[in-house]
Amino acid sequence: MDEQTEELRDLFVETTGEESVTEGQTAERGDLADATTPEDADERVRELIARMRERYAFESGLDDEALGRVVTGFYADESDAEIADAVDADEATVFLARADLHLIRDSDRDAPFPLDDLRALIVDDVPMDERADRLDVRGSDASASQTEADASVAADAEATVEHYSQVVEADRRSTRANDRFTDEFADLLTDADLRESHTGDAHQSGLEEAAEDIETNTQL
User: Which of 123, 132, 112 is nearest to 171 (CA)?
Assistant: First the structure.
């Protein structure tokens, strides 16, 4: 304990008469630093996934162990291709798993039409094929043409709208849950990464802030 810390401690004891509180707080900070091991984080991630499965209808078909790997891969900034290799699935399945788990990337929202327009159609419960028409994804003549080529264009348009509809629906589910699950995933995996030193670039700023907090607490 340096001189400044000692003076602050003496002032606190003199003011409150509660020396034991200071000692308890010091112990608690130590406990928090060691609260979540990587193994504990993995277990709690699976518990969160189980809770989500009870609440939502999952579409990917992956089991909870594979879904746990999807979560850790997402927060490690792995691509869907990398995650797909790790769980022995294809990228489309990984995307569905991420949507099931509310794990949407900013790049997932780069739609060829305004997502706000799609959200409005979803709220109005407009059928998928009609969404493509209203968003003009098929082009001006594709919906009226009966040729094989134009039918393929229409199918591709519906697939595109369905993909971004899944993005919007995942965001809506997350918002209704107050982003609780994604926040808990992030908290758990950030804690684990602090101890494992495997944090990706997406977590770097958060780690720097944590380090500043630790330094401030040490000085106090």
Answer: 123
Whole-angstrom distance, CA of residue 207 vs CA of residue 199: 8
pLDDT recorded at residue 39: 79
- CA–CA dist 148, 138 (Å, integer): 14
Helix locations, 56-104, DSSP H: 64-75, 80-87, 91-100
- Are 94 and 83 contacting, i.e. CB atoms less than 8 angstroms apart? yes
Residues 90, 139 contacting (CB under 8 angstroms):
no
Which two three-digit tokens encode residue 159? 């697939």
| Confidence band of 10 (pLDDT split at 50, 70, 90) | low
Q: Which amino acid is at 192?
A: A
Tell me, what's the pLDDT at 213? 43
Taking residues 161-170, what's their average pLDDT?
A: 96
Is residue 90 located within the same domain as residue 41?
Answer: yes
On whether residue 181 sits in a domain, the answer given is no
Residues 94 and 113 in one domain: no
Per the CB < 8 A criterion, the answer to whether 83 and 73 are in contact is: yes
Q: Give the SS3 label for residue 190.
A: helix
Looking at the predicted structure, is the pLDDT value of residue 207 above 70? no
pLDDT for residue 91: 97
Q: Domain limits at 127?
A: 106-176
Distance set, CA 121 to CA 37, 112, 125, 195 (Å): 44, 16, 6, 45
Q: In one letter, which amino acid is 184?
A: E
Q: Which residue has the tokens 């993909």?
A: 163
